[in-house]
Amino acid sequence: MIARLPTAKGCAALHSVNDNKGYTGRMNENKHIPIKRIDQAKAAGMAHFKEMRALNPWMDSRLVSEDLNKICNANASIKSKLTKMAAYADRIAAAIAPHAACKSGCSHCCNIAVTISGAEAEMIGAKIGRKPATVLQWTSSQDEQVKKYHNVPCTFLVAGKCSIYDARPIACRLQFNLDDDEFLCKLETKPVDDCIPMVDLRHYWKNLSKLTGSTVITDIREFFM
Ligand code: SF4
């Protein structure tokens, strides 16, 4: 099974996990966090995932994939498809949010790598009235970016809040910690990369990547400095 690497928002890197019908709870040994606490997060994540799925049966990966395929295969511009993908991300986010530890005012995940495509950077730029930098190719590997931007505030984080909230990247819309609290997100507990329980949205990322894969994919800070 494969799933999105949870250390970078929306990143394209995939690696092995043992998931359970849409739940990503990769739990490795971590020198900084007691194993007992990690097990607790796994249990909390699974419980919250089940609650979310019971209330939102449409979140079945096959049904979501059908919807996403329709969006991505439509005879429309990338911009139009991306807009629909963002709206679908909001629908998914609305289903997950009530079951997540993430709360308004929390900005932990605005201090890690945030991966977006050139196509999305253009769309965000048009919405906020800023032209993104031209990035011709990856400037560093995914792993390097994860390290480079760990504990580095996003360009758009102002006084602990997202200053482009309505235009924020899809990756930001879909980042949720299904634990009971923010403990594993706290930067001082790093590296927590593989410990945060998340919903497995690989079908979403796969479709998004098909749509935008021809454009450069890199960190948001490289498009907007
Ligand atoms: S775009 Fe907004 S939500 Fe996304 S990481 Fe930056 S500040 Fe946070």
What do these coordinates show?
With 225 residues, the chain is mainly α. The protein has one domain. It is built from eight helices and eight strands, in the order βββαααβααββαβαβα. It has a two-stranded antiparallel ribbon with strand order 1-2. Strands 3-7 form a two-stranded antiparallel ribbon. β5 and β6 form a beta hairpin. α2 runs parallel beside α7 (202-212) and α3 (78-96) packs antiparallel against α7 (202-212). The N and C termini lie far apart (36 Å). Iron/sulfur cluster binds at residues 110, 114, 154, 156-157, 162, 164, 168-169, 172.
Please outline the helices and strands.
Elements: E1 2-4, E2 14-16, E3 23-24, H1 35-55, H2 61-73, H3 78-96, E4 115-117, H4 118-128, H5 142-148, E5 157-158, E6 161-162, H6 170-173, E7 198-199, H7 202-212, E8 217-219, H8 220-223
Antiparallel strand pairs: 1-2, 3-7, 4-8, 5-6
Helix pairs in contact: 2-7, 3-7
Bound molecules: iron/sulfur cluster.
The class by helix and strand makeup works out as mainly alpha
User: Structurally, how many domains make up the residues?
Assistant: 1
Helical amount among residues, as a percent range? 40-55%
Give the percentage of residues in beta strands: 5-15%
Strand order of the biggest β-sheet: 1-2
Number of strands: 8
In this entry the ligands are: iron/sulfur cluster
Contiguous low-pLDDT stretches (5 residues minimum) are: 1-7, 11-20
Number of helices: 8
Taken in chain order, the helices and strands follow as EEEHHHEHHEEHEHEH
Head-to-tail CA distance between termini = 36 Å
| Largest pleated sheet | 2 strands, antiparallel
Mean pLDDT: 83
Oligomer: single chain
- Label the overall shape: globular
Rg, nearest Å: 17 Å
